[in-house]
Amino acid sequence: MPDHPFNVLFLCTGNSARSIIAEAILNRIGAGKFRAYSAGSQPKGRVHPETIRLLEGLGYGTSQFRSKSWTEFAEAGAPLFDFVFTVCDSAAAESCPVWPGQPMTAHWGIPDPAEATGAHAEIAFAFKEAYRLMNQRIGIFTSLPLHSLDRLALGNKLKEIGRMQGATGKTPEPI
Q: Whole-model pTM?
């Protein structure tokens, strides 16, 4: 049993919506047990404004969120990860950096709310739906008996979470 919280990295391409949402949720509901981070393979350079609106509306502080490259977490001195989850199909299909420590990985793809179009209400709904889907997955993840599952069983559970309702159609082998 580690004497520190489990470090979890959520990856997507732009690091402006889904991975930021996942980071926020896990840091809230997994406080003390988990420490979440997010990054992108091709970061947008800013968090999507609707991500900020949604999280602030749900009572999250948002000043700490920024769109950043996954290379930050492959450098010396970066946290060692216990888990790395891709939340978009594009990032899952890319060649990721080598993560020290052999973290458990899984693909938890959900639709990109940043691609939503239409009226503001339709766009806001896409972000709320992404939040709902990610919150459901993270809630199940945080309730897993991590210390009593062997690596194979845990890997299977993580993949099952990624296939839950709302998963994107592609299920590439992650990082």
A: 0.90
